[in-house]
């Protein structure tokens, strides 16, 4: 519909420069420039390298997005930008660019929460999100379970990782197996030819004693250490490391815990919709296991296609569009880049 708002979203919280354009729930453009190759030899994202790459990619990525959507900046109704959480220097590039474009084109600006945007992106594929819903966000920097009553007003955190994020665990295990960076997609592919029941790796925070204090929290650091110990023992014994079996067994341990806790959160809160977002939501085993377990309880699982699970500009535009439609006031032009932005803050108040 022509009268739905045309919203442009800018994402620079980590290593992807993303610019997306949506009209209502319809995706018109999703331009992306990634600096992932520049970080690969360090085994993780180097903040300064990411910031510089955002700076170089911003203007050409903006042009690509506008061309793809067949619109000009003058046509845009509002500009949304990731205000946080993320890498401070990287966020700063996106926020400064958004302010520049908003000022030049006289458009309202919305500083939005990156994690809420990972939830909102699903509406581009599956339509409005039934509320309440449970959202599980699993990325390189975060692993959280949230109760979403009203995405425009704020979400209620139910639990989060107490150490490593799920994606971080994939990246670290891939590194110790010598598989490269980022680890998630490589482990996903390597696991296909492995046996997931070969090694019984630990399931963090699932013991009865953890129920009281950590029912909806995650812990992946013990799992990562267990994989490291297992691999070291093999190497010490001069035996080859069965990389596919280790990958599959590790992946199974992560997906088992994530899906069990997500379903438990749905059942405990009487919620029938589970939306999964963040880079790890691209994991093929996670998607299958979540579907299987949810189906047993009549819970509907919504997961965006893999390209929309990892960081992108469309997710920021999707959340911006949601805020505009709900009549939420824009942020002020002096909005901050907030590397520790709280999950309860969906957009920077005007
Ligand atoms: O959401 P995202 O693109 O960036 C952050 O906000 O962190 O997530 C990146 C993370 C990385 O740790 C990457 O290894 C992981 O998502 N990832 C995956 C898969 N694709 C990306 N993890 C498991 N399986 C995948 N297929
Ligand atoms: Zn992300």
Automatic annotation (TrEMBL):
Pfam families: TsaD (PF00814). SUPFAM superfamilies: Actin-like ATPase domain. Substrate binds at residues 137-141, 171, 184, 188, 283. Fe cation binds at residues 114, 118, 311. One of its GO terms (cellular component) is cytoplasm. Its cofactor is Fe(2+). It is an enzyme of class 2 (transferase). InterPro entries: ATPase_NBD (IPR043129), Gcp-like_dom (IPR000905), KAE1/TsaD (IPR017861), TsaD (IPR022450). Belongs to the KAE1 / TsaD family. Required for the formation of a threonylcarbamoyl group on adenosine at position 37 (t(6)A37) in tRNAs that read codons beginning with adenine. Is involved in the transfer of the threonylcarbamoyl moiety of threonylcarbamoyl-AMP (TC-AMP) to the N6 group of A37, together with TsaE and TsaB. TsaD likely plays a direct catalytic role in this reaction. This is tRNA N6-adenosine threonylcarbamoyltransferase. It comes from Actinoplanes lutulentus. The lineage of its organism: Bacteria, Bacillati, Actinomycetota, Actinomycetes, Micromonosporales. The gene is tsaD.
């Amino acid at each position: 519909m022509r009268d739905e708002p045309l919203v442009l979203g800018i994402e620079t919280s980590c290593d992807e420069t993303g610019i997306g354009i949506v009209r209502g729930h319809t995706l018109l453009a999703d331009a992306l420039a990634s600096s992932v190759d520049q970080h690969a030899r360090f085994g993780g994202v180097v903040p300064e390298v990411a910031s510089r790459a955002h700076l170089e990619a911003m203007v050409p990525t903006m042009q690509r997005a506008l061309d793809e959507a067949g619109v000009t900046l003058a046509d845009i109704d509002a500009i949304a930008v990731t205000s946080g959480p993320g890498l401070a220097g990287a966020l700063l590039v996106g926020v400064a660019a958004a302010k520049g474009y908003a000022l030049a084109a006289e458009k309202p600006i919305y500083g939005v929460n990156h994690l809420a945007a990972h939830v909102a992106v699903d509406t581009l594929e599956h339509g409005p999100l039934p509320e309440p819903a449970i959202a599980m966000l699993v990325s390189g920097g975060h692993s959280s379970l949230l109760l979403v009553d009203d995405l425009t007003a704020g979400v209620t955190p139910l639990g989060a990782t107490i150490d490593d994020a799920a994606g971080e665990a994939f990246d670290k295990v891939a590194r110790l197996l010598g598989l490269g960076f980022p680890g998630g997609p490589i482990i996903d592919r390597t696991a296909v030819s492995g046996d997931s029941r070969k090694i019984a790796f630990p399931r963090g925070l699932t013991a009865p004693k953890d129920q009281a204090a950590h029912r909806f929290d995650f812990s992946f650091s013990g799992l990562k250490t267990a994989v490291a110990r297992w691999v070291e023992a093999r190497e010490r014994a001069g035996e080859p490391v069965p990389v596919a079996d280790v990958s599959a067994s590790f992946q199974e341990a992560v997906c088992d815990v994530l899906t069990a806790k997500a379903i438990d959160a749905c059942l405990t809160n009487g919620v029938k919709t589970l939306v999964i977002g963040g880079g790890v939501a691209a994991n093929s085993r996670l998607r299958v296991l979540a579907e299987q377990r949810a189906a047993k309880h009549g819970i509907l699982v919504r997961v965006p296609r893999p390209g929309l699970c990892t960081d992108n500009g469309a997710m920021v535009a999707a959340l911006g569009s949601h805020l505009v439609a709900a009549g939420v006031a824009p942020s002020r032009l002096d909005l901050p880049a907030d590397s520790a932005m709280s999950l309860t803050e969906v957009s920077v108040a005007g």
